[in-house]
Structures are given as structure tokens and as C-alpha cells.
Design goal:
The protein is an alpha+beta fold. The chain has helices at residues 3-10, 20-30, 38-47, 80-83, 116-134, 188-205, 221-230; strands spanning 18-19, 67-69, 74-77, 85-89, 92-96, 102-104, 144-145, 147-148, 151-152, 154-157, 163-169, 175-180, 184-185, 210-216, 218-219, 233-237, 243-244, 256-257.
């Protein structure tokens, strides 16, 4: 039985309302061997709750949700007739009314008052993530995205220290935490990724090793020194190549590269 199936069974009765700790206790009673980590159960609760905005980090759950989040720490079975219908559209959660009109349930990351530079940074980070998630070997041979049942290591919400951009496993089966930064990375990123590494060691790794990689276009001198002192932390620089094509001439070869 998968974690998802166990949760479906647990919440078969719409009247069942449980906190996260209540879910842990109920599953411990039903499955004394504890086949799922606490972090796995919690991620399932978030990503399979139809109205939880955090499921945008796992859009592949769209159409598979069966839980409803009470906005605090409670979960129950989703009843569309009374709870309404919710949809993810380009990373934003919408509640769909009876007339088909959609209302955003959470503000878009690209809000109207966002600066142009902020939007560009967000776009670059997403492009980096898309490229690496599809071909992690570009970064280091042997890397594979972490998976645990229905949950994978892309935008992994730890619920404690933040969201890990990419959690992967190397060719030896050890964990590699990857943090992506658009532009130049500052020394503050070191503290951020160390928090992720510590969480993975405590919640997931067991006897496996955990290391980190920061990917950015460049790194401050302070970050370089910090990474050297920490150990087990690599800094990898990405490059961007722009292609320019003169569409007015109709000649696809009239452009240039920079």
C-alpha cells in the first residue's frame, strides 16, 4: 500500500477531521511498521489537499486531489459539492465558481508590483530548474531526482526550513541538495542551503551522506570562503547564451549570438 492509498482509507469518511499529528498517530496505529517517514506523510497532506496553495510545487497532483485543508492544521476528505472546485493555472491556485468564473486563492508570485528585475530572476531560476530537472547529468554525472512514492525532490517543501529547489541522489545513493540562484549568489545562501542539508540529514538520509551544490552565475568572495570552510558544498557557475534573429528581414541567418 502506498502513502496516498493509506490516506484515502483514513479519510474515507467525510466527517473525519484530523490534525497533522492526528494523522501520524492514526497511521502509526494502522501500520505499526511505520512504512512512511513523517516528512513524506506531511508532503502528501499538503500536495493532495485541493485547496492548499503549496501544491503548486507538485502540479502533477492536479486531478488526483482528495483532501481538503481547513487553513490551519486540519485535514479532511474533499467534498466538491460543499467545498467547491479548485484548479492550478500556471502556478496559481484558483477557486472555480458554479458559473465557471475563477478567483485566485493566492497571489501570484509575479504580482503587479513586482519589479522587472525580480521577474527576470524568477524566470531564470525557473528555467534553470526546468533544465536541470530534465537532465541532472548536465550538472554532475549520476545525479537523479529524489523520489518517495508520489513525492519527488523538485521544490520539496520541508515545512520547517523552507523549500529545496532540487533534492537529488548521486551515483552512490547519497543525497545532494541543489540551490539555484539567478545572478550572483551572496554568502547568505550558505546559511540557507546548510539549513536544508541539516533537515535532509535528520529527516531523510539515515546513514547516507548529504552534500550541497549552489548554482549561480557568480559568487561573492565571502561565499567562496564560506563554502571552502564548510566542506561538502560545491559552487557551480551557469552561463546564458542569447540568440538574436532579425524577424523583419525574414532571414533566419541574419541574427547573431552573444
Amino acid at each position: 500500500m502506498t502513502c496516498q492509498e493509506a490516506l484515502r482509507t483514513l479519510f474515507a469518511d467525510p466527517a473525519t477531521l484530523l490534525t497533522r499529528d492526528g494523522v501520524y498517530q492514526a497511521l502509526d496505529r494502522a501500520y505499526p511498521q511505520r512504512p512512511w517517514k513523517r516528512s513524506t506523510i506531511y508532503l502528501h497532506l499538503r500536495f493532495f489537499s485541493i485547496n492548499n496553495p503549496q501544491r503548486k510545487h507538485h502540479a502533477d497532483t492536479e486531478g488526483k486531489c482528495f483532501l481538503f485543508w481547513d487553513g490551519n492544521d486540519g485535514y479532511r476528505k474533499w467534498v466538491p459539492e460543499s467545498d467547491g472546485t479548485w484548479e492550478l493555472r500556471e502556478g496559481v491556485l484558483f477557486r472555480v465558481g458554479d458559473n465557471g468564473a475563477a478567483t485566485a486563492a493566492v497571489a501570484s508570485e509575479a504580482s503587479e508590483d513586482a519589479t522587472v528585475s525580480g521577474l527576470i530572476s524568477l524566470s531564470i531560476e525557473r528555467d534553470l530548474e526546468d533544465s536541470l530537472a530534465q537532465n541532472l547529468a548536465m550538472l554532475q554525472p549520476g545525479l537523479n531526482l529524489y523520489r518517495d512514492g508520489d513525492v519527488d525532490g523538485r521544490q520539496l517543501d520541508t515545512a520547517a526550513v523552507g523549500i529545496i529547489d532540487l533534492l537529488t541522489l548521486d551515483k552512490n545513493g547519497d543525497f545532494v541538495v541543489i540551490e539555484l540562484k539567478a545572478g550572483k549568489a551572496a554568502d547568505s545562501v550558505c546559511g540557507q542551503i546548510l539549513g536544508y542539508i541539516s533537515w535532509v540529514r535528520k529527516e531523510l538520509a539515515g546513514q547516507k551522506k548529504v552534500r550541497g551544490i549552489i548554482v549561480a552565475s557568480d559568487f561573492t568572495e565571502r561565499l567562496r570562503y564560506a563554502a571552502e570552510a564548510v566542506g561538502g558544498l560545491s559552487l557551480i557557475r551557469y552561463g546564458v547564451r542569447f540568440n538574436f534573429t532579425d524577424v523583419t528581414s525574414g532571414d533566419p541567418n541574419s541574427g547573431s549570438q552573444a
